[in-house]
Amino acid sequence: MVAAFASTSSTPIPEVSTAETPKTQLRVGRLTKAHGLKGAIKLELFTDDPARRFVPGAVFTLQVPTGSPWHGKTLTLTELRWYNGHPVGFFAGVSDRSQAETLVKAILWIEQDSSEASLEEDAWYDHQLVGLAVHRDGERVGTVARVDHFPAQDLLIVATATGEVMVPFVKAIVPAVDIQSGIVTVTPPVGLFEELPEEDEEPDADVSVPESADPGVAADADADADADEPDASDSGVNEKSPSPESDKAD
């Protein structure tokens, strides 16, 4: 899914008329690993249309830490190649592996007119999602307050009566987004929108020694056992005979 709005940096938006065209930003990829020695970088794509987004001359805004030498800068693609099914990008000004490694984990954003409909399946802009009602099992549970973007996945921040809930923006949990009806359908795991009740600890089972059905039987058995035991004084053995273990050599 592609949905984006905020970034740590931005590029100037040229005026095409007397009024500035509204813009939004789309997160389209992430740089993952330096490839080779000539500045190439492997890409993780967040778009279903890389042939449209990653063309020579495409300019990307970078989301990087403030301490990065690339903070506040843009990156221009010179070529996109595929190696063993993995996309690899070549960028202007990145000519060796050392430079490429400074860009690892950078997130790539592009600007697009807010009025332009997305051509990608299951892709929305942040401004299209914010304000939509969130329904679970046909009941409204909250409203989309914002969309947070992270390298691993996006999160829908849903405002509920008890506070904000972070919902992973993945198909398994958000199976449907209906912009026309203004509804986001969620199928969250149990406990995401409500606190689970604490389970009472089960008391330990009572361990009791079963009593003999006939007390007299036990008494007779004890008497028989005493009768069978030899008298130490008659047997000629010590009062304490060594246990079997004491006969074993250490």
How would you characterize the overall build of this protein?
There is one protein chain. This protein has 250 residues and is mainly beta. Among the domains are: 23-113, RimM (Elongation Factor Tu (Ef-tu), domain 3, Beta Barrel), CATH 2.40.30; 130-185, Roll (SH3 type barrels), CATH 2.30.30. 12% of the residues lie in helices and 32% in strands. The chain contains 5 helices and 12 strands. It has a 6-stranded antiparallel barrel with strand order 1-2-5-4-3-6. The chain has a 6-stranded mixed β-sheet with strand order 10-9-8-7-12-11. A hairpin with a 4-residue loop joins strand 11 and strand 12 (183-185). The radius of gyration is 36 Å and the shape is elongated. The model is unreliable at 1-19 and 232-250 (pLDDT under 50).
Secondary-structure map:
Layout: E1 23-35, E2 40-45, H1 50-53, E3 59-63, E4 74-83, E5 86-91, H2 97-101, E6 107-113, H3 126-129, E7 133-136, E8 139-149, E9 154-160, E10 163-168, E11 176-178, E12 183-185, H4 215-228, H5 232-235
Parallel strand pairs: 7-12
Antiparallel strand pairs: 1-2, 1-6, 2-5, 3-4, 3-6, 4-5, 7-8, 8-9, 9-10, 11-12
